[in-house]
Amino acid sequence: MRLLNALIAVFFLFAVPVHASSWLVQKVSNVVEVSIDGRTWNRVTAGTELPNASWLRTGPRGRVILTRNDESIVYRANTLAAISVSQKSGRKTLVTQQRGSVLLSVRKRRTQHTSVVTPHLAAVVKGTVFEVSVTPQVSNVRVDTGLVTVSNDHGSVAVYAGNQASAGTGAQGPSAGAAAGASGAGQGSSASGNSNGNGNGNGNGGGNGNGNGNGNGNGNGNGNGNGNGNGNGNGNGNGNGNGNGNGNGNGNGR
Question: What is the pTM for the complete model shown?
Answer without folding.
Answer: 0.64
